[in-house]
Automatic annotation (TrEMBL):
Transmembrane segments: 444-465
Coiled coil ranges: none
Organism of derivation: Cocos nucifera (Coconut palm)
Any Gene Ontology CC annotation: plasma membrane
The name this protein goes by in its record: Receptor-like serine/threonine-protein kinase
Keyword annotations from UniProtKB, A to Z: ATP-binding, Cell membrane, Disulfide bond, EGF-like domain, Glycoprotein, Kinase, Lectin, Membrane, Nucleotide-binding, Phosphoprotein, Receptor, Serine/threonine-protein kinase, Signal, Transferase, Transmembrane, Transmembrane helix
Domain Protein kinase, chain residue ranges per copy: 495-788
Amino acid sequence: MDAEIRLCSSLSIFLFFLFFSLNIQHCVATDNISSGQSLSGNQTIVSKEGNFVLGFFTPGNSRNYYVGIWYKKIPVQTVIWVANRATPITNTSSAEFKISEDGKLVLLNSSKILLWSSNSTPSTNDSTIAVLLDTGNLVIRNGSSTTIWQSFDHPTDSVMPGELLGVNKITGEYQSVTSWKNPENPAPGPFALRMDPDESNQFVLLWNGSEIYWTSGIWNGQYFPVSPGTVESSLVNITFVDNKQRKYVMYTILDSSFICRITIDSSGLVGQWYWLNSTQKWQPFFIEPLARCDVYSLCGAFGICDLKSSNTCRCSYGFEPASLKEWEFNVWNSGCVRKTSLRCRNKSLAGGEGDRFLEMANMRLPDNPQNLTVGSAEDCEEACLNDCSCNAYAYVSGCSIWTGDLRNLQQLYDGDRGVGTLHLRLAASDFPASSSSHKLVKDLTPSVIGGILVILCVLFGLIWVSQRRKRARMAKQVEGSLIHFTYSDLQRVTKNFSEKLGGGGFGSVFKGTLIDSSEVAVKKLEGLRQGEKQFRTEVSTLAAIQHVNLVRLRGFCSKGSERLLVYEYMSGGSLDSHLFQNNSTVLDWKMRYQIILGIARGLAYLHEKCRECIIHCDIKPDNILLDKDFCAKVADFGMAKLIGRDFSRVLTTMRGTIGYLAPEWISGLPITSKVDVYSFGMMLFELISGNRNTMQPEDGSKIFYPSWAAKRIIEGDMFSLLDRRLNGAADIEELTRVCRVACWCIQDPEGHRPTMGQVVQILEGVLEVSMPPLPKALQLLTGDHSQIGNQLPSTEYKDPLDQSQDFYQ
Ligand SMILES: *[C@@H]1O[C@H](CO)[C@@H](O)[C@H](O)[C@H]1NC(C)=O
Ligand SMILES: *[C@@H]1O[C@H](CO)[C@@H](O)[C@H](O)[C@H]1NC(C)=O
Ligand SMILES: *[C@@H]1O[C@H](CO)[C@@H](O)[C@H](O)[C@H]1NC(C)=O
Ligand SMILES: *[C@@H]1O[C@H](CO)[C@@H](O)[C@H](O)[C@H]1NC(C)=O
Ligand SMILES: *[C@@H]1O[C@H](CO)[C@@H](O)[C@H](O)[C@H]1NC(C)=O
Ligand SMILES: *[C@@H]1O[C@H](CO)[C@@H](O)[C@H](O)[C@H]1NC(C)=O
Ligand SMILES: *[C@@H]1O[C@H](CO)[C@@H](O)[C@H](O)[C@H]1NC(C)=O
Ligand SMILES: *[C@@H]1O[C@H](CO)[C@@H](O)[C@H](O)[C@H]1NC(C)=O
Ligand SMILES: *[C@@H]1O[C@H](CO)[C@@H](O)[C@H](O)[C@H]1NC(C)=O
Ligand SMILES: *[C@@H]1O[C@H](CO)[C@@H](O)[C@H](O)[C@H]1NC(C)=O
Ligand SMILES: *[C@@H]1O[C@H](CO)[C@@H](O)[C@H](O)[C@H]1NC(C)=O
């Protein structure tokens, strides 16, 4: 009995406590710190709408605490700003983050030592306050609403929408972002993104404040050329401002529910990321530089960048990681250190054995060598040995030696440009007894003849092994981000073209797996009579076109008459298999809408954002692929240019394409990007109905669905069009929008069709779409498509609505 009562009371105390502490939490949920208040322990402040939180956090498994700002609505703690990046505290319970008496924001540790200060202009007003805004900006205001200081002016590694990145011309202060040292340490790392110090209108990535390893390209009035797909203007608005006071770039998100940030990470890559609700993950819009080994000193001193290795970086022979902990985070720039220090010809050591050279074949030679004018490789080696600070030499078309740390070593492969053999200096004791070097051979020659034989055997062994390895590895040539495969590579990758994914008018597609186990789709082009050089030019243009809604070209092969393209593999398959196959799960409306929006964005990018407008010409559900998250990507763009003159012949004789072809293809009018709009419209009908446009109902007659559907749309009866399998589960507004857009897209005169950019805006709800007129030609379209040509254009049909009206209001 007694025990029971005690249990009850302790339970109620517990409940009381729980309630109380919840209550406390609730009371503490303010968006500001006013003078006299301070944050400590696990207290936080939350922005008004609840977008962001400010408080103490520990990154990863670190034991250190930092004051930072992170997203409240995202389950993965993503910190966008850190106050005390380099001065962590170890115990938050009596630390204080507060407004000091002179109106600055300060962080004190438990011994009241100042660890961080906003260093803002002193404000004597005791109503100075720090407020966390819903943009993620922490601002200090004095009594009135004057902003004295804001965290947006002092970014750490992230640039938020609305944040300016640039230079204040009056104070000369740059707003730049600097990487974290590693994922558990927000202290400034070596990589930074900032406005070009040379005052040109571009951004650069810098290592150690001096070495530029990437540039954005000069602002051209609309975008930075080198970051394709950086941002779609339909989603993100970039502004570049250059006035007397400031020069900066700012981006804003047009759809406020879209969460997006630009970040530079600990391995020197800059990326724009957006939060994808459906996967609960950050997804990249773009990541630069595309070739990871281009990051300056990615692997640090004496580290070797090797794209084929699963770890990207490794240490040279005779070296080990300077900081294993950092290497475990895949942050390598701390580099490698010698296992054994150099003897430097110190004959008093180790029986007169000095240093030797390790031959490293197929290396990209480091920058900035010292060139010596010596006659032979032996003299070059001698010169390096004589200089205690010399770490390596190479004798290519002259003698080059390197003193100090070797950076940017890269393992290259057959066919790469700039291949050289580097001789790396090591302490003699680091050489394995059985291995050999040129020097070793020379030393042993007079004494042991037999030794030569042994060494020759070893050498032959090594050559054989390296030949074999060379053959085993794929001969790749990296052109930007584009991989040049040999035909035998692709035979291996696709297991001799054994797994066919599909075939279209331009060739068959096979599945393959690259050495890094990423999956690819290999397309064998047919009917291509283009020269190799022209093919390469086209292919590299295509590779530069990158967008979340476009299937990315990863490589190519051109050998003899064979032309192959290697694309990223889309595990979700093609849209037609999802729409028309009975055994697949039914795509719900929300998903369909996302797919439609994705396709529209991809096409808008092709039409409007690329340097050269690209008309796809073959939009149909077979050419829309879905990734594992059902994100839609347009495939097969650029074929028109690759195939050339024969393209339209191939297209118009192709089965399965005909229903999507705009009248211009047949009537001989000029082909513009509006042909894609037409095909897109036709496809929308199929997405709405879940059926092919050409249906054969039970009675054997053929009906062409869009002509029937267009009438329903004009009558305002959208739900009768909706896929029956959805049971009417669709957002009426979205459905109306899609139906009307579809109808506008298939108007006969191309001028009446919207552009893809406008379609995107309509689908995003930025533009209103008016009631479409009934498309003329549709009336005439029955089962027999061969008649289209004869019957176009027709004036027999009388419009119910004024044709001159526009598609949006
Ligand atoms: C600061 O927070 C308190 C408590 O939530 C609120 O009442 C007050 O209006 C806030 N002050 C400002 C200037 O936002
Ligand atoms: C906050 O800290 C207090 C004291 O350390 C602790 O009792 C409480 O559970 C913590 N609250 C949360 C939400 O972690
Ligand atoms: C932090 O400080 C508080 C009070 O100063 C102390 O009670 C607590 O044990 C400390 N925590 C740690 C982990 O040192
Ligand atoms: C506060 O910071 C100072 C300076 O970094 C350090 O010497 C001191 O040990 C810290 N005090 C505590 C309790 O962590
Ligand atoms: C607020 O700060 C600004 C700039 O420091 C100053 O000009 C202004 O007088 C201050 N206002 C108040 C009420 O302290
Ligand atoms: C502080 O600012 C408030 C609001 O603007 C003003 O009323 C007050 O006089 C100021 N106090 C001082 C000491 O400047
Ligand atoms: C980084 O830059 C600083 C200052 O410019 C220079 O002193 C230092 O040697 C550089 N570090 C390396 C590893 O080159
Ligand atoms: C983009 O930003 C600029 C400047 O802030 C503004 O003038 C323009 O209207 C914006 N564009 C859109 C589509 O919101
Ligand atoms: C993502 O989910 C959040 C919360 O469920 C919601 O507020 C937001 O609008 C969603 N964003 C998008 C782009 O759908
Ligand atoms: C040579 O080695 C000896 C013994 O370790 C050392 O005292 C001396 O400084 C070394 N000389 C040079 C040039 O490194
Ligand atoms: C050394 O030679 C290389 C290639 O031969 C050349 O690019 C480089 O400019 C030369 N460096 C110096 C300092 O002369």
